[in-house]
Structure formats: structure tokens, C-alpha cells
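Lab meeting prep.
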Amino acid sequence: MAVDQSSFVVLDGHHRVEAARAIGLRRIPAIILDYSSEKIVVTPHSISKEDVIRAALEGRKFPPKTTKHMISLEGHLFHISRIEPDVRLDIRALR
């Protein structure tokens, strides 16, 4: 799961959040990102980062797969999940 460091808006991993809630987890491993970084890009370009944050803070959800969050690494764009580490924890630690 990827989360903006300023607003704590979930950028990637919404389905994981819903699954975690459904099984009663109180904690969810996440990577905290500086969404204002120029290295992070939202597509399509018709939706801005500000649109994403504003919609989330107002409780408005975009339909699934409306946006993709990409990160520029060494001149190439990759889905943000590329930098999310594998997390292997005993699920009991998250309750």
C-alpha cells in the first residue's frame, strides 16, 4: 500500500485496505511517499494529483482503475507498486 506523507491518502492498495478491514486488522503495512515529488506521476494526465487528494479528502471515490500512479526511475516510468517492498509479517502482529 502506498500513502501520501502529507494527507495520508491511500494512493495504491485500496483493495488491500478493504480486505484488511474485512478481517479485522488494525494495522496495514504501507510505504509513505512524498506525492508532491516530480518523480511521481498520475495518469491519465487529465486528472491531477490535486484532484486525487481533494477527491479522497472529500470522500469521493474515483471508479476502480481510473488513475495509475507511476514513478520515474532512471528515466523510465514504472507503476508505484514497483517500489513497494514485500512484507512478510505474522498476521497476528497486525490485529
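Slide two material, second protein:
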Amino acid sequence: MRPHMPSRRSFLLSAGAVAAAPFAAPLVHKLPAAPAPPFAARAGRALRDAHAVAGGRTPDALADDEAYWGEIQRAFDADRTMINLNNGGVSPTPSHVLEAMIRDLRFSNELPVEHMWRVLEPRLESVRRELARELGCDPEEMAIVRNASEANETMILGLDLKRGDEVIVSTQNYPRMLTAWEQRARRDGIVVKQVRFDVPSSDDHVVERFAAAITPRTRAIELPHITNLTGQVLPVRRIQQLARPKGIEVLVDGAHAFAHFPFTRDALDCDYYGTSLHKWLLAPVGTGFLYVRRDRIPKLWPLMAAPKAMDADVRKFEEIGTHPAANHNAIAAALTFHRAIGAERKAARLRWLRDRWAKQLLAASDRVRVLTPLDDPARAGAIGFFAVEGLDPAKLGGWLLAKHRIVTTPIVFPEFSGIRVTPNVYTTREELDTFVETVVAAIRTGVA
């Protein structure tokens, strides 16, 4: 449970509540009053109607209710001429969130030196406060950045490491993070050790693999909270508690976790955490955060230079030069939308969507293997990964896109190959059923 979670009933029961900057503190300078934009009004009605449909039912009971989720889908202007099952890469943002960003961009452009720097940028503190509330940390431990790569590379490149120091990663870490470590190895002479674990794998096996790689020279471990390949959730807390007594820093790549399923900082017991917000929180592209435990902030160098006076200030990680405030401030509208649905409801729906296609494919053919854990809600979420014996995943993915306008993520990896499927809350049951029917046809007749 989170330390504080306003009730869904208190959010967005009117269109105006959606249109407003929901977390903005009072400021001397204010945007001119305006009626609720049309997309905001539509989102407000959709959430109000969805709330009425939900009643008092549990998240699991609501997971397959198309009346409820149909109302949520009205908040999106998704292109329905294609079936997008790569929301793990980037997801559409609700239309009213996009509209909030555009409104602020226009306002900023009228007089940037005043509107951008003196009106909009101070509002970031409200976003910081609410993201910190959602994660369960102090706002002074929360930096607003542009994506998980920026957050994670701040951690990777900001640690003080010397020649011969060892870092442990997994082969399933995100490729950009592995590239960052390889650059440190070339530049600083550190040693990067990669561990492999089975897919899918038990938590015990994952912990054992990391534990076996630790030596007296190990200084850091970097791992994904949930892998971007198969969607398995890794035992972050256990690895953190294995490493901390040995003085080993643990860096957590949460690109696919935040707002995907509920968790808190204390549940993970983590000291560092980076994520993107354009995936599962449904914020605009160019949004993410970096969490650093307060006593670690002075020890971590920022990606871009900051004055010494900021050594202990989490805002040093935001010193990136002139940049728009609009997309970061729109995080507020996305977070309000997320809370209006409810984290548990959203997670239950995402698991249901995954199971909808995965279990149908498993039942349709004994040539299908699903490499994502389906039996434990704590071990996976919306991300699913499957392979079909005798079908090349790259060819299958290309055929799905070219012939049927279905977007998936073919993955050819040294240890396994297949297709990643990532629906989101705007995905319809009919779209998933069409995907299943199309893959079953490919299994039966091929993709030539």
C-alpha cells in the first residue's frame, strides 16, 4: 500500500478537474482563465461514466468489464487503423494530457523568458511532490528527467569507480545501459560482468546468479525491475539486501515498471531508481524521473555539470540547459488520470489483456511457448513474450505489420527469440482477438 493515495472519487468527476493543472501551487503569475478544452471535457465525462460503471467491484472483477474499459478508451485519440501492441516502447498519451502540454507550449511561446522560466518552470515542484508521493519517497529525492536512459545513465556514469572495480549486470539489461557500461569499461578500465539466468526463472535462481558473481572488487549491480524482453519482474529487494551489507550499490532500471503495477520505494528498499513516464504512466514523450536516496545524492555526479553548491540537491540532475517545461508539467495530468483509474485496477486489466492473447495462443497450438510467467501476478504484468516453433520471429513480426497492420516487437536474442506483445489500457478485446486469429493463421499456413 502507498503511504497516501487520494480516493478515485476525489479525482476528475468534472471536466474542469481534468483540464486544470491538478497539482499546481498558487503562483503570482497564472495562465489566463479558459473554458475546459474539448479533449479534457471528453476525458472528464469518460472517467465519470467509468466510475459509475465500476461501482464497488474489486480490480479483478472489473478487469474484463468492457463497459468500464470502453469508457477509459474514450480518453485516447488512438489510430484504430492499426493494432498497436508495442506500448512497451512508447504509448499514446490521453488526449487531454497532450492538450495540456500543447496549451503550455503555446503559452510559453508568447513570452518565453517570462512564461516559460517564471510561470511554468516553478510548477515542476508540484509534479515533483506528487511523483514522490506515488513512489513513497521524499520530494527532495526525486529528479524530473526526460526518460529512463537519462536517469539510468546518470547513475551509471555518475558513480565514482576506478580501474579494476567490478560491476555486475545481466544479459537481459536494456541494451543502451549495457552500452553505457561498456563505455565506462573502455574509458575507466572497470570490469563489467554479465550474468545469465533462465527464462522464465525463479526468484531464487536470479538471486543465486547475482550472488555467485560477487567478488571483493564488486562495487555496483545494475538490473531491470522488470525485463524489457519477456516482462519478468526481478527480485529487486532481495538483491538490494544481498548487496548493501557488502557496500555494493544497486542501480534499478525501472523503465517498464512505474505505473505498470503498484509498488513503493520501501517495498523495493532501493537507493537508486530510474524510469520513463511515456510508457505506463501515459505521460508525453520526454518525461521520466530519477530517484536517489538522500544520503546518496552527494556521491553521485550529475550527467551535466552543476555548481558545487548543488552537490546535495537532487535538482543538480536536472541541470541540462534550456528545455521546455510543458511536457514535464503535463506529467501532472497523466498522474491524475492514472489515479482516477486506480493502480490496482489498471494492473489487473493489464494482466487480463496479457492473458487474453497468451492463453488463447497456448490453447491453439502446441508449437507456442510463452516465456513470461503467467501464474503469479507478482512476477509479471502486461508484457508478454511468445515463440512459435518453426516460425522465424522477425518474419512473423514483419508479416503481421505489412499484411495485417499489427505492430509487435520481434526479438532475436542470443539466449532466446520470439515476439514481445505489450497492450495498454486503450487496447480493446477485439484487437487482441484479431491478433490471436492472425497468429493462428500464420501457424497453420505460414507467412510467405
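Talking points for slide two:
DSSP finds 17 helices and 13 strands in the chain.
The first strand starts at residue 83 and ends at 84.
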